[in-house]
Design a protein that fits this description.
Blueprint (H helix, E strand, L loop, with lengths): L39 H11 L9 H18 L7 E6 L9 E6 L8 E6 L4 E2 H5 L2 H10 L3 H14 L7 H10 L15 H4 L6 H23 L5 H5 L5 H4 L2 H12 L2 E3 L9 E3 L8 E3 L6 E4 L2 E5 L11 E3 L5 H8 L10 E7 L7 H10 L5 E7 L3 H13 L6 H9 L9 H20 L5 H8 L6 H29 L16 E2 L1
Parallel strand pairs: 7-10
Antiparallel strand pairs: 1-2, 3-9, 4-6, 5-6, 8-9, 11-12, 11-13
Helix pairs in contact: 5-11, 8-11, 13-15, 14-18, 16-18, 17-18
Length: 502
């Protein structure tokens, strides 16, 4: 049901009580109890979010209308000016989950239109959470990330239930449950079996690393509890790790991660913001240039393209590769011009010439462990950038090394046998990485053509497909360079201390 407002002041949609209705499985949003318990403390904590959970079917429409009115009046009561958007629904892939809300144009729009301006009274930042900018900077510099602080704040606010000022906004975040624009949660919340979809991709290791980082932050919560300003003064006896188990903190962290906005040209305490009508209600797109920006007393959105009434509004997600888009927001952009892979090359520490090679690398603005970014569409440029550094591994004669140290420009003199060896090593590396995936590009295409493919497997397949295309382009560029060598009969130079690639 699409409940349209009778005026044009702002948004319209059908809001259900997602934060309050019981789910058939643990809630992913900002909930803090995920199963029945006899523990009195936990029962008390759950009371705020589980009260009035049973709604008679005959009352559903009136409840939706009432909640919609509550959200509208909450935003308007706190200074929301007239705007040019509404909220619409798209179905979730899981019939047990409520539809995904998204922001759409409420009228025909032109490039340059200001579609909404959210007053600071409706924006959550660390400045508001902690009540002290210097404390915010201290915490996020030494102990906790901005995401951890914001997640913890909303978790405590949710304990207040309807008494919280942010109750209507928290209810909407609960409804979204950290799901991206394809209704897929971040891989940080996937099961081990679902993470196997990412086998071969460096993203899988990044997911485990990010999860460990969230765990470390959780373990730091108690140590900063009494120095965290106004938020913690409100709950002096509710020690975080006692109030919220790790899995629930992690779910809240991921939910906040999916909707936080990075504001530019503001103080550190305001740079990470949670903005109603912002993500995840706004969809991200890599080829968009519209951004949420801080203006005097508000956060506004100026669009970069025309829209027809009903079209979803999109914003720029920054220069993020698909691996980051998947981990942060649960989607992959197949037209992402910022997509990239990383190749790490390192000098062999057992090489007798290691120190000299390290010095030679430094003189050419490289490190002993150097990362190379391979941007989609610029694979040949990336290969050419790696070659001078890789040639260092094939210099073994001390006199040649001295010549390298005294020369300017390219790191190494190039012989035919050295170039063949370097290119062979690089080609072997790309072949090895491609072999690490359990499927081929052709098999990925077949999977994606299956309309019954699960959403998580779909986004994972889109990711590994984009990675393979970059690697295959790198391999082709390397093979092309091999084919340009003057004499194929030349044997590659030996390299007992070749550089390590990973």
């Amino acid at each position: 049901m699409d409940l349209r407002l009778q005026n044009t002041r702002c948004i319209s949609s059908s809001f259900r009580r997602s934060a309050l209705l019981p789910h058939p499985r643990p809630a992913i949003g900002l909930s803090f109890c995920n199963k029945p318990t006899n523990n009195r403390k936990c029962r008390n904590m759950c009371a705020a979010s589980n009260s009035d959970t049973i709604v008679k079917s005959t009352d559903i429409t009136s409840k939706i209308e009432q909640e919609h009115a509550d959200l509208r009046s909450w935003m308007e009561r706190n200074g929301l000016p007239p705007c040019k958007v509404m909220l619409k629904d798209r179905p979730s892939h899981d019939s047990n989950l409520q539809p995904i809300h998204y922001v759409a144009a409420s009228q025909d729009l032109q490039e340059g239109d200001v579609v909404f301006s959210i007053p600071n009274s409706l924006v959550v930042t660390l400045e508001r959470v902690l009540g002290n900018e210097s404390v915010a900077e201290l915490l996020t510099t030494n102990k906790l990330s901005e995401l951890a602080c914001l997640a913890l704040y909303l978790m405590y606010e949710k304990k207040q239930g309807k008494k919280s000022f942010w109750y209507p906004y928290i209810r909407e975040l609960d409804r979204q449950r950290g799901r991206g624009q394809l209704a897929v949660e971040s891989p940080l919340l996937w099961s081990e079996a679902e993470l196997d979809y990412l086998t071969g991709s460096p993203t899988k290791a990044e997911v485990f690393e990010r999860s460990e980082g969230i765990k470390r932050e959780y373990n730091e919560l108690d140590t900063v509890w009494f120095m965290a300003g106004s938020l913690f003064q409100q709950y002096p006896y509710d020690i975080p790790t006692e109030a919220f188990p790790f899995e629930i903190f992690k779910q809240a962290f991921v939910a906040v991660q999916s909707c936080v906005v990075h504001l530019q040209k503001v103080s550190l305490a305001r740079r990470f913001a949670l903005v109603p009508l912002g993500p995840p209600l706004l969809s991200y797109r890599s080829n968009c240039k519209a951004m949420l920006t801080a203006v005097d007393g508000a956060v506004q959105l100026v669009i970069d393209r025309p829209y027809k009434a009903g079209d979803p509004i999109v914003v720029w997600c920054g220069p993020q590769p698909n691996s980051k888009l998947l981990i942060n927001y649960g989607f992959v952009d197949e037209d992402n011009s910022y997509d990239r892979l990383v190749v790490e090359a390192s000098l062999n520490t057992e090489d007798p010439q290691y120190q000299n090679k390290r010095l030679a690398a430094q003189r050419n603005a490289k490190l002993s462990v150097q990362t190379f970014q391979i941007v989609v569409g610029k694979e040949r440029e990336a290969v050419m950038d790696m070659l001078p550094y890789l040639r260092l591994g094939y210099v073994s004669d001390p006199s040649e090394m001295q010549s390298v140290l005294s020369s300017q420009g390219p790191i190494c003199p190039v012989s035919s046998c050295m170039e063949r060896a370097v290119l062979d090593q690089l080609a072997g590396y790309f072949i090895s990485r491609l072999a690490g995936y359990p499927t081929t590009l052709t098999e990925d295409e077949t999977l994606l053509a299956d309309s019954n493919l699960s959403p998580k497997q779909r986004v994972a397949t889109q990711l590994v497909k984009s990675e393979k295309k970059i690697l295959k382009a790198c391999l082709q560029a390397t093979v092309d360079l091999i084919n340009q060598l003057p004499d194929f009969s030349i044997s590659p130079c030996p390299a007992p201390y070749a550089l390590n690639l990973k």
